[in-house]
Amino acid sequence: MKKYRSLLPIDEEGYYGRFGGAYIPEILHDNVKNLRDAFYRYVDDDDFQKEFDTLMRDYVGRPSPLYRADRLSEIHKTNIYLKREDLNHTGAHKINNAIGSALLAKRMGKTRIIAETGAGQHGVATATVCALMGLDCVVYMGATDVARQQPNVERMKMLGAKVVAVHSGNKTLKDATNEAIRDWCCNPDSFYIIGSTVGPHPYPEMVAHFQSIISKEIRAQLKEQVGRETPDYVVACVGGGSNAAGAFYHFINNPEVRLIAAEAAGKGVDSGETAATIHAGSEGIIHGSRTLVMQTSDGQIVEPYSISAGLDYPGIGPLHAYLATSGRAEVLAVTDTEALDAAMTLTRNEGIIPALESAHALAVLDKKRFHPDDIVVINLSGRGDKDLHTYLMNNSIN
Question: What is the sign of the dihedral through the CA atoms of 159, 144, 205 and 359?
Fold first, then answer.
C-alpha cells in the first residue's frame, strides 16, 4: 500500500522546527481536520494523480520549459537557466496549486471556493479552475491591489468570479487574507484555496506539494540538457513563498544545491517601507501559523510595502522561516529599484518581460557573484503583462 511521504522537514503537527502548526478559531477546527484528512487520503490516490497530471499537461501546458538564457549568462559570466512558469496557462505558477486544490475540493463535495489574492495571479488561477470545474468563486483582494492590478481584476470577473475589494488596513494581501478567513468562518461549508505556503497546517505542506512539480521538472530537464539533475543554485522570490517552495522542494535534501530566496525590501530594509519579513521580522503568529512576522514589540502587525503586490505580505511561510533560520537557504533583500533594473535587463536582453515578483529573483544576479561554471536556475514565476502600468509609472519604459 502506498503511503505519502513528504520531502519537507515537517513533523506530524505541521511544524518545520519551531515554525508552523495550526492556530485557528474553534469554528474552523473541523474544516482544517477534514482538509488534512482529505489531502493525505487523495495525495496518493491513483485516480487523483492521473487527473492532476492530465490537466497539468493538457490544460496548463506543462512541463514548462527550462531555458538557458544565453545573453543573460554572458552578462553575468555564469550559466543561467530560467524555469518558465510564466508560460503556464494564466501566466504564473499559481495554476499548479489552484488545480490540485480544486480537485481536492470536488472530492470533498465542496461547491463554493474562497480565495485571496495580491498580484491577482492566484485569483485568476482560482477563477480559471472554478470556471473549468463549475464551482462558485469569491476572491478577496485589497483595494490598493485592485487599483494597481486592474487587468487581473477584469480577468477574474470575466471568468465568473466575484471580486471583493477590501478597504481595511493597508488594503493589500494581508487584509485580503483576513477577509477570506472571516468568510470561511461564516461559511464553513466553503473550501478556502490559499495561494501560498502560509496558513494553518496542512496548507503550507499542501501548497508546496502541488507546486513541487516545478523542481521535479527542473531535475529531469537539467538531466536532459546538461547531464546532471542538480544545479549549483536555485533562486526564487519569496512573499508567502509558494513558487520558492515548489522550486526548492526536490532539492531541499541535496545540500550541494544552494537555495537563495529573494524577498522584497521595498525602499530598503531599514526604511520603514519594506516587506522583507525574514530580515525585519520576529517570531509570531499570523493567519494560523507560527512564523516570522513584521510586528511591533507588542505584537501588532507592521504594514508591509513593496512595489510588487504579490510580495507585499508581513509574514513568510513557515517552511521558509525554517530554511532561513537553519541556514539551509540564503535570503537576500531586493529593493524596488533593484527589481525594476533586473526586469529591464531581462526584457532588453532576452525578450522576456517578467512579473515584478520574478524580477526580485532576477536581481540576485546583481547582488551575488557566481563562478563561470556554476549552473544557476532562476524560477521565473510569472509574466509581466499585469505589471506594465507599474513599469510605466516608474519610468522603466522609454
Answer: positive
Report how far residue 136's alpha carbon sits from residue 217's, in angstroms, rounded to the nearest whole number.
32
**Active-site hit among 73, 85, 116, 215:** 116
Domains of the chain: 15-23+30-57+94-207 (3.40.50.1100), 61-91+212-393 (3.40.50.1100)
Task: Tell me the C-alpha distance between 176 and 271, whole Å.
Answer: 24
**Residue 216 known to be catalytic:** no
The active-site residue out of 94, 110, 171, 174 is: 94
Output the pTM of the full model: 0.96
Task: Kindly report, residue by residue over 286-306, the tens digit of the pLDDT.
Answer: 999 999 999 999 999 999 999
Query: Among all chains, which residue has been given the C-alpha cell 515554525?
Result: 19
Query: Quick one: the chain helix, strand, coil %, rounded to 5?
Result: 45, 20, 35
Which one from 190, 338, 381, 386 is the annotated catalytic residue? 381
Judged against a pLDDT cut of 50, whether residue 355 lies above it is answered with: yes
Residue 179 annotated as catalytic = no
